[in-house]
Amino acid sequence: MSDLNDPRVFFAAERTLLAWNRTSLALMAFGFVIERFGLFVQVLSLAKNGPSAPERGVSFWIGLSFIVLGVLASAAANVQYRVVLRGLKPVEIPEGYRTHFGELVNYAVAALGVALTVYLFFHGASL
């Protein structure tokens, strides 16, 4: 992939992976806020109009979609990072450097996003 024989190529790929990690975290956080805001609006409606059954509105599904999008972004970033790593020459990766730490963090973020999605899906509409 690269003919530079320069470790900066590897570090650029790692920075890109971590940038996608931040993006996926932001998408998941935004989705969570949207989902919880819908619950907040329901609570306000409950205080104003009296008791009613909690329901899953549009904000629930939009929020859940953002969380799933964050999980997919995290997983896709890992796949792309592996492709770049396979294309690098050994001289482009510093000796003794652990190349998989960023991937492990991304996998953890994706797993937590899946756990959040499952939790919200089964407990999201409860007040």
Structure explained in plain terms:
The structure is a single chain. The chain has 127 residues and is an all-alpha fold. Helices cover 76% and strands 0% of the residues. The protein has three helices and no strands. It is rod-shaped and about 70 Å long.
Structural class: mainly alpha
| Outline type | rod-shaped
Helix content: over 70%
N-to-C SSE string, H for helix and E for strand:
HHH
Count helical runs: 3
Give the termini separation.
53 Å
Q: Name the average pLDDT.
A: 88
Q: How many β-strand runs? A: 0
Q: Which features does this protein show?
A:
mainly alpha; 127 residues; 0% strand; single chain
Topology:
Layout: H1 7-49, H2 58-87, H3 101-123
Briefly characterize the structure.
The protein is an all-alpha fold and 127 residues long. It is 76% helix and 0% strand.
